[in-house]
Amino acid sequence: MFRIRPVLVAMAFALSASAVHAASLPKGVVYSANEGDGSISEITLSTGVVRTAQIAVIPHNVQISPDGKTLLAVGTPAVKTGGHGTHGGAGGTSTSVKADSHAEGDAGLLILNASELGQVPEALPAGSHPSHVVTSRDGRYAYITNADTDRVSVVDIQGKKVIAEVATGGYPHGLRLSPDGRELYVANVTDNTVSIIDTQSLKEAARVSVGKAPVQVAFTPDGKHVYVSLRDEDSVAIIDTSTRKVVKNISVGRNPIQLYAAAGSSKMYVANQGSDNNPDDTVSVIDTKTQRVINTVVTGKGAHGVAASTDGGFVFITNTKDNTVSAIDTSTQDVVATYSVGPNPNGITYRSTP
């Protein structure tokens, strides 16, 4: 039976090994979901201090709430050895703990106090095999991909219950909300499509064929295009949101996983993870105006998760094989800090602080 632990079990403190430019980093906090031991690492950028706290699930993804007060983590209870999986096929990374997919109640969504991870989290239902989570613009609803059942679960956070389950394509994984909040784009890994969900009707409005093994999606800040990582093609597809058609395909590094646009610029950052046996350590930088790769940044082995600071000045990358997070200055495309975090860091999110 799944039970939330009464306290977060471990809290470790460490200074960044190479955060030599910490003074130039924003006054924000970065969180990584560490699948290797079922923990979350919290990086305070102004000081370089890293705290790592164990939780009761294996977090595959974390997401800060719109008001910055709560941290959402999705996963399933941790037992013995194994891992979350391989994103519906090749190119995945194994972990040292196993998700118990038969846990009672599917309470795989944790709501944590973003400023105090040591407080007891609230556990809510998340559906079967929860992978990624985003919230509505007002923060009331959580949208969670359920890879095993080809669904997106919609959770009313205030009501503490699932209010809808929306059918998608095969093995839904990464998802993002459109800037206007009207649509969700969902990457379906095993049927090579992206589902478009209407957030008012909570139904799939369209399904777009994009290419082999789409893992994650990312909107441009103006909402006109969605970039889709195609893991098994080493490329990114671009969807025109007005026509719902793929308009271009761009070659990037090996096995791209997550991607994210930096606000206030025309740059899209794509993390290239590579494979277990031959991990990649690069991030492809795409100019969204010319739709071309303009730079390649070397981070750490198994580059995977991507998040950006609110002002777009920095991008943060989880390196699954190095157990680190890299900070990239988007004005220079240089890695200006590297932080040691928990094992097998995966999803990542950023919280702005005063």
Describe, in plain words, how this protein is organized in 3D.
With 354 residues, the protein is mainly β. The protein is 0% helix and 54% strand. It has strands spanning 11-15, 28-34, 39-44, 49-54, 57-64, 70-79, 98-99, 109-113, 122-124, 130-135, 141-146, 151-156, 161-167, 172-177, 183-188, 193-198, 203-209, 214-219, 225-230, 235-240, 245-251, 256-261, 267-274, 279-287, 292-298, 303-308, 314-319, 324-329, 334-340, 345-352. A 5-stranded antiparallel β-sheet has the order 1-4-3-2-30, with no helix packed on it. Strands 5, 6, 7, 8 and 9 form a 5-stranded antiparallel β-sheet that branches. A 4-stranded antiparallel β-sheet has the order 10-11-12-13, with no helix packed on it. β8 (109-113) and β9 (122-124) form a beta hairpin. The protein is globular.
Brief summary:
0% of the residues lie in helices and 54% in strands. With 354 residues, it is mostly beta strands.
Present the secondary structure layout:
Layout (H helix, E strand, L loop, with lengths): L10 E5 L12 E7 L4 E6 L4 E6 L2 E8 L5 E10 L18 E2 L9 E5 L8 E3 L5 E6 L5 E6 L4 E6 L4 E7 L4 E6 L5 E6 L4 E6 L4 E7 L4 E6 L5 E6 L4 E6 L4 E7 L4 E6 L5 E8 L4 E9 L4 E7 L4 E6 L5 E6 L4 E6 L4 E7 L4 E8 L2
Antiparallel strand pairs: 1-4, 2-3, 2-30, 3-4, 5-6, 6-7, 6-8, 8-9, 10-11, 11-12, 12-13, 14-15, 15-16, 16-17, 18-19, 19-20, 20-21, 22-23, 23-24, 24-25, 26-27, 27-28, 28-29
